[in-house]
Amino acid sequence: MTGELAARALSRRYGNTLALDGVDATIRRGEVHGLMGHNGAGKSTLLRLLTGADRPDSGAITIDGSEVRLARPADAHAAGIIAVYQELSLIENLTVSENLFLAGELTTAGRLDRAAMNRVADDLLAKYRIDATATTVLRDLPVASRQLIEVASALRRNVKYLLLDEPTTALSPTQIEELLQQLKRIATEENVGVVLVDHRLDEVFSVADRITALTDGRVLLSGSTAQVTRADVERAIIGHESEPTARAARSAAPASTGETLLSVRDIRSARLRGVSLEASAGRVLGIYGLVGSGRSRVLRAIFGEERLSGGEMVLGGHPYAPASPADAIRSGIAFVSEERKSDGFIPEFHPRENVTLPVLDRFQSAGILRLGRARAAAEEALGRVRIHGDLQQPIARLSGGNQQKVLLSRAMLQSPRVLLLDEPTKGIDIGTKAEIHDLIRELAHGGDRAVVLVSTEEEELLGVADDILVIRNGRSAGRLHRAEDLTVAELRRLALESPEAALAGV
Ligand SMILES: Nc1ncnc2c1ncn2[C@@H]1O[C@H](COP(=O)(O)OP(=O)(O)O)[C@@H](O)[C@H]1O
Ligand SMILES: [Mg+2]
């Protein structure tokens, strides 16, 4: 019994980004298909198209040679195609059994049959060797088990193709091993076509029958694992050696390196395995790494949100060990996180109110809030970031780019010594993006402040940062690089978790 799911010349554009550019790929039942590529290569986009979560601009998807239209995930489900994304879709407050039976409860004579559901759930848990019982609340389980439960839940639904987006990033080595073995078994014993999106060569080579590598939305390599070498795959992922990044618009940092404001020495946590960096006044330090490498964790550690088990930090010459974000803010650290909506701002508040919120106590005297002063400070801060749009409305109604500018001006109002930015231009249109890049450089180069910038976009990082730190699997890989000495290809090579990639002068 064979069967294949195929992408035929699929293209998908988002604004100015051609995320997929005529992609062909064939997923066969009974095989594990490793889908590899650098950040932004188009892996998740391809998965979304193959699972009906998004639609191509052109090209076709076929099953066993016949074109299928996957207008929505339900269409894909009906065809036996299921995706498991990084953001798991399970509900934390429910039990394993409740999650497994969410949309299709078992009933007996019109009543929920909990006992029957629990029996089925326990059988499923045993079958996939998941260490939990039907009545365990999901919140109490490690991520690895939740991942497997999500897979098991997909397999209950007669799945023919199972597509997983970077499922191993949050797992420990033993958990990864277990998950990969399970996927291999599911492919061969249950005749499922498994697509494994993963950027670790070891993992893919250990289970995949076939590998496809995407680079900038194109397939640069596709073949059976027996026929391609790791060097081939590395070369495909890294892409062509490109010209040094255009930096005409770049206002160079002062030649002399500024005073070190923040020094992070070998910090460790559950997910960080030794990261060191130095952020200097007047400079932008860029942090690069692949999904799951720990980029954002480093920022969260500096912001007092990651529990450290080792290492130390020094801020302005003094030992620095923030117990909470409030602590970090008091010490002169400001953070604009990747999650604008969830931990960024209060959607119903106007930009002005959002901007002054963290520093309201500054506008109090004799226990009275001086609203006029707060308002004036907010207006001054907002004026500096050149917002286009009506400020007399809730911030939620502004465009993503303008929201981000509001958050930047809010961070500036805190007069931070160190400004932490996580993906500051994610999902922002190209014009506003360029403005935000200018702002970031102004903020850093203006004086006695350091900016630490995390971005998955290589061009952005090379264009905006002065120095670059690469993180691999929770560790900082070597010294800081000067951005002007790096190309996109070199950055990708440094980020790949492979000693071969680091040595091969690709
Ligand atoms: N919804 C979206 N809006 C705008 N750009 C997007 C969207 N989704 C993806 N992109 C862009 O398309 C490119 C491919 O993204 P993605 O498929 O997520 O890559 P990968 O999963 O390989 O890291 C990236 O440049 C990304 O920024
Ligand atoms: Mg992705």
UniProtKB/TrEMBL annotation:
Q: Which GO terms describe its molecular function?
A: ATP binding; ATP hydrolysis activity
Q: Translocase among the record's keywords?
A: yes
Q: Which Gene3D superfamilies match?
A: P-loop containing nucleotide triphosphate hydrolases
Occurrences of domain ABC transporter (ranges) = 5-241, 256-498
Q: Which InterPro entries match?
A: AAA+_ATPase, ABC_carbohydrate_import_ATPase, ABC_transporter-like_ATP-bd, ABC_transporter-like_CS, P-loop_NTPase
Under the heading SUPFAM superfamilies, the entry gives: P-loop containing nucleoside triphosphate hydrolases (SSF52540)
Does Transport appear among the keywords?
yes
| Keywords assigned by UniProt, alphabetized | ATP-binding, Cell membrane, Membrane, Nucleotide-binding, Repeat, Sugar transport, Translocase, Transport
> Which named protein is this?
Sugar ABC transporter ATP-binding protein
Give the source species: Galbitalea soli
